[in-house]
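Request: How about a record?
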Amino acid sequence: MPDLQDGQTTEMQGSGSKPYLLKNTGGVYSCSCPAWRNQSNPIEQRSCKHLRKLRGDDAEAARIGGALPQRPVRTQSAGAGAATGEAAEADAGPPLLLAESWDNATDVSGWWMSEKLDGVRACWDGKQFLSRQGNLYHAPDWFIESLPPVPLDGELWIDRKKFQRTVSVVRRQDKSDLWKEVRFLIFDAPAATGGFEDRMAFLADTLARSAAKFARQHPQERCKNLAALRAELARVEALGGEGLMLRQPGSKYVKGRSSTLLKIKTFHDAEAVVVGHQAGAGRHLGRLGALLVRLPDGTDFAIGTGFSDRERAHPPAVGTTVTFRYQELSEAGVPRFPSWVGVRQDAALPAPE
């Protein structure tokens, strides 16, 4: 059967007029079809009929079976029910601090401000890198050899607007030299004592003594006032950054979401035309799961969040122009984190082909 070498792409005609793009990036195969994009599985565990047609069922089954380890199974205490949703994810992975979204009202003067990195969250447990879900990142020995034997919380990062590239490198299992592009930017030391400032001092001292070649402390600066916050956010976004993170002075490192850590990022609005409906599952069974939409340039994607129950029960018809909100465009021109806003009543895009 034919196959794609690392970095190669090919097109395959689907049911529509526009062919789908199939790609191999570091052993992670992808397809631009909605069936591949709308899966909830991690990207390295996704397949579709186009990839199976290209590579064969046996090759795809072998590839999916060789993906990153599944989330570790935790033994439940007697009488405890099975955890679900975000709580189950938090139990499966390392005990990381997670951010809340800024409400535009909390006074953050005096808080610590840093750029929100568009990379891959990683916890160094003193011996290895783990994802939020507890999966292992197979970093080369030369990448981790000088890291200190203490827990560190940070981001595996290449550069702004390089999220997809970062994912393709760190999800590989061959410990390749591609990791030379990556840096481990550290923003906290979970096991250190004291408030945030104490942990930052501990982190600076620890990294200075370790002389880790591929790791560095992520810079923090005080937020003077709201005007300074807005100016820094505009500066970071103009450079292609994702947004800002704010940390409350003196705050402790705790597991789970906390209002002492806030994220701030600007979202954009745009229009698209509805081309289909994806059926819901679970609590949305029998209703809309996601809208399949198309941008004016022909890019197809799905909008699955932001709907009320009433809107899921009565979704807009195919051909309707709708407004959605998104964070940024991926390298392939697909809106990231699209969220439903509403039907556009005063304008219409060209009907889909």
Q: What stands out?
A: Confidence is low (pLDDT under 50) at residues 66-90.
